[in-house]
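Slides due. Your pick:
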Amino acid sequence: MSDQAWGMTRRDLLRGAAGVALTGAGAWSRGEAQPCGSAGTGARARVVLVRDPRAIDAEGHVNGAVLGEMLDKAVTALLQEPDPSKAWARLFRPKDIVGIKSNEWTYLPTPPQLESAIKARLLVAGVPEGHVAIGDRGVLRNQIFQRATALINVRPLRTHHWSGIGGVIKNYIMFSEDPSSWHDDSCARLAGLWDLPLVKGKTRLNVLVMLTPLFHGRGPHHFNKAYLWPYKGMLVGTDPVAVDATGLRILEAKRRAYFSGEQPLAVSPKHVRLAQERFRLGVADPSCIDLVRVGWMEDALI
């Protein structure tokens, strides 16, 4: 998200970021909203960036064990609970029915190793295996998703022909009976997906996969390996808008570095900003997002 979208200069943004608490207990983690006037929601959001150089190898093969470690580090940092098992148990109860909303896009799907790691942690938290499902395009017909009391939203970050970027906000489009109906005006209404009956109030965790984000492309089916980069990270949070807004900042920084200057996305990702301003789904203003960095941060771009 460009600084200009918020009426801010880059100097203003850096000044605001310097005042953001990156570690330590905060009122947000205790469920107390803090004033954040420019955010419009009056609240702050906490997002964890976790990276590990071992997450993928030189050939792009995913290390499932490392992804599990990263996931645990992110959740413990998010909840400020040192014990991973206790952290997951705070998010999910044995009585829950949990849908893991994944993404099946052929060229950059949610890694199955990450899906398995998430499911394993739900089982450790006491959720019965028969109460857990992983799905994308078939969620409307899946009985677990139909009965779900909780959702986990997990997908890779990429540029997108209709919405500028594909992130966790957009990942719920398959809960609509008519996904293409959300494509008008650069998918400006995407946050409205979160009011659909199978979704509303159920999301406990959002995971934006940034192992090899796709940072450039044009056209409805664009994909070019030249525009993937081994970022080897994940963004994790309970606020989908804050997670996407943070991922967008990283993606834009990569585009500036790669193209040697500002290179606007082919389609404006305005749905992220509108998710805050129009739908009050969460926080997009970077000055109202507390970013926690965990692990390897070389060339983090944020």
In short: The radius of gyration is 18 Å. Residues 126 and 212 are 32 Å apart (CA to CA). The chain has eight helices and eight strands.
